[in-house]
Amino acid sequence: MSVTAVRKDPETLTMTMEAEFDAPVARVWQVWADPRKLERWWGPPTWPATFDRHALTVGAEVRYHMTGPEGEVSRGWWRITEAEPPRHLVFEDGFAGEDGEPQVDGPVMVMTVALSERASGGTRMVLRTRFPSLEALQEMVQMGMEEGMKAAMGQIDAILAE
Amino acid sequence: MVVHRPTDDELDRLFHALADRTRRDILRRALGGGALSVSELAETYPMSFAAVQKHVAVLERAGLVHKRRDGRAQRVGGDPEALQTVHRLLDELEAHWRGRIEQIGALLAEEPQEDER
User: Fold this and answer.
1) Of the residues A3, A18, B8, B87, which has the fewest C-beta atoms closer than 10 A?
2) pLDDT tens digit string along B87-107?
3) What is the distance between the alpha carbons of residues B33 and A90, in angstroms, rounded to a whole number?
4) CB-based contact (8 Å) between A4 and chain B?
């Protein structure tokens, strides 16, 4: 498992990341399609995510919240715009208010997920995140992610040391 | 590497400057290295010289471009340092997604259930 390529385009505020996994496409799709699996990786380790509503069908509204180390809650939503299991998913991702519903005029990111079989076995996942504005990118990055990343790196070290 | 952390006021100016399509276009041209004059820029857009000058002033306050006098012309050059803020944010986003990919990898590395094989 590894990240094999990253492209960042400041002009269009887009990041594309390619990763490979030693698992068939159907299993990798499940980390998106099964909310209990999704919860185990969507939030940083110190901000675990809970998906309160979840379905990967076109038009479906997804609601989730992440809980921080001090008990603070950050809410978000997805709106599925394209879904072709088990290979293709496009959704909008934004911030939600305390009622869990999308913030009016809040920034909306567009995420594209593409899964394909690798010739040598396993799955390639290509993720593209596009931000509508620099402000949206800023807000996204500021959501407690630095702390989360430090904790994630600690977890990875622990796994590697086993 | 020490990265300059912009203040809230600096970020406000940066976001405001980048929130306008004409200003983004002016910035792209300025970063292109052409050092166009304000009059040349004014010919490009369906607006007055004064309006273009105002856009340039907003970009200048955000630290994205600088003006310099060249004979009678005012030339607009881009300041790549401000754009580094964008790069830094994209770097942080990359780090965040790398964290997620690691977590997906760990999840997939667990023993698959019978029905998933």
Assistant:
1) B8
2) 777 787 888 889 899 999 999
3) 36
4) no
**pTM exceeding the 0.80 threshold for the entire prediction:** no
CB contact under 8 A, A11 and B99: no
Rounded mean pLDDT, B75-95: 74
**The pair of three-digit structure tokens given for residue A131, joined into one six-digit string:** 């931000």
Which among A103, A90, A95 is positioned nearest to A59, based on CA atoms?
A: A90
Which two three-digit tokens encode residue B10? Answer: 């600096």
Task: Kindly state whether A71 is in contact with chain B, defined as any CB-CB distance less than 8 angstroms.
Answer: no
Asked if residue A22 lies in contact with residue A4, where contact means CB atoms within 8 angstroms, the answer is no
Task: Give contacts of B83 with chain A, Cβ < 8 Å.
Answer: 10
Nearest-by-Cβ selection for A15 from B94, B105, B109 = B94
* DSSP 8-state symbol, B115: G
- Interface probe for A, chosen from B27, B87, B108 (most Cβ of A below 10 Å), is B108
Per-residue burial over B48-85, b = 16 or more CB atoms within 10 Å of its CB, e = otherwise: eeeebbebbebbbebbbbebeeeeeebbbebbeebbeb
